[in-house]
Structure formats: structure tokens, C-alpha cells
Write a structure and sequence with these properties.
By secondary structure, the protein is α+β, with helices and mostly antiparallel strands. The chain is 68% helix and 9% strand. The longest helix is centred in the first third of the chain and has 93 residues.
């Protein structure tokens, strides 16, 4: 090999080493970029999965809270309904006990007076328990309709039932019927009183 070839070979070797070093550096940088990109993708996937799971858990918690709230409301409403049933059953028993009250005629007078306008004066029939005929008769007289015939009927609760001869118009003037008509308003007052929310 000529002596002049030595420096050229040395130059080529240096250039080759530099090229190899540059390729190695680029490959290392690319490998690092790939590793970082993969790590970033894994982190994004992990974050997305965690976020999706957290959202699913939040929905499950909200659904559980809604179910619990609905169950609680249902239980409260059921308890209120049972309580009101007991209250009105007791009230009906007490109203029935008024059948023997000495002031029954005075108690029935407003109910009968409210019922009479729905019937013609010449076509009014009244039914009540035999034991209440006197009290109902006095209540009719107080309303100016003492001439209305009163029939005995053991099935009528405390009070009277007024109807026309054909029984096409019927007005229930019993204490129990009055209680039932007022039940919605009385139920609200009863619940408010029990819950301490009376305005």
C-alpha cells in the first residue's frame, strides 16, 4: 500500500466512525422517542380507563342514592298512609259513638241543610237508623223540611241519607261521609301536626 494511502484511509475511518456514531445517536434518539411515545400512550390509556371507571362508579353511586332516596320516600309514604288509615278508622269509630249523643240533632242539622238543596221539596225521602229517627226529624225540622218522610234503615251510619223517590239522586249526610269528603284536607293537617310542620 502506498504511503500516501494511509492518511486517506484514516480519513475514511474517521468519517465512517462519525457516520456510525451519528446513526447510533439518531437510533438512540428514535428509540427514546418511541419509548416516551409508548409511555405517553400507556398513560393516556390508563387515564382514559381510570376516568371511564370513575364515571361509571359515579353513575352507580348516583343510581344507588336515587334508589335509596326513592325507597325512603316510598317507606315514608307507606307509613303515612298506614298512619292516616288508623287515624281515620279511629275517627270513624268516634263518629259512630256520637249516634247516642244528646246533641246529635244539632250536629246533623248542618249536614242535612247542605243536602236538601239537591232534592225537590216534594220529592225527598230520608233514611236513617231507627234509633236516630227523632234526631234526624229534629234536624229536618230545623232546616224547614220537617214534612219529609223518614224511613228506618239499619245500614245507614250515624246521620242520614237523603234521596228522591226514584233514588236517582242520593246525598249522603252521614258523619262518616262528611269525614271522607274532608279526608284530603284533614290528612294534610294530620301529617303536618305529626311532623311538626303546621304553618
Amino acid at each position: 500500500m502506498p504511503a500516501t494511502a494511509g492518511p486517506l484511509l484514516e480519513q475514511l475511518r474517521r468519517e465512517a466512525d462519525a457516520a456510525v456514531a451519528e446513526c447510533t445517536a439518531r437510533a438512540s434518539a428514535e428509540a427514546e422517542r418511541i419509548r416516551e411515545s409508548a409511555a405517553a400512550q400507556r398513560e393516556r390509556r390508563r387515564a382514559t380507563t381510570v376516568a371511564a371507571r370513575e364515571q361509571a362508579l359515579a353513575r352507580e353511586r348516583e343510581a344507588a342514592r336515587a334508589r335509596a332516596a326513592q325507597s325512603t320516600v316510598q317507606a315514608v309514604l307507606t307509613a303515612r298512609a298506614a298512619f292516616l288509615d288508623r287515624v281515620f278508622e279511629a275517627a270513624e269509630r268516634r263518629l259512630e259513638a256520637l249516634a247516642g249523643a244528646p246533641d246529635l240533632a244539632a250536629r246533623l242539622a248542618p249536614l242535612i241543610a247542605e243536602a236538601l238543596p239537591f232534592l225537590r221539596a216534594d220529592d225527598t225521602r230520608v233514611r236513617c237508623r231507627p234509633a236516630l229517627r227523632d234526631a234526624v226529624g229534629r234536624a229536618l225540622a230545623a232546616a224547614g223540611r220537617g214534612d219529609a218522610p223518614v224511613e228506618s234503615d239499619d245500614s245507614v251510619p250515624a246521620g242520614a241519607v237523603l234521596e228522591d223517590a226514584a233514588r236517582t239522586v242520593r246525598v249522603d249526610a252521614t258523619l262518616t261521609a262528611r269525614l271522607q269528603r274532608m279526608r284530603a284536607a284533614l290528612a294534610i293537617d294530620a301529617v303536618r301536626a305529626v311532623e311538626g310542620t303546621t304553618p
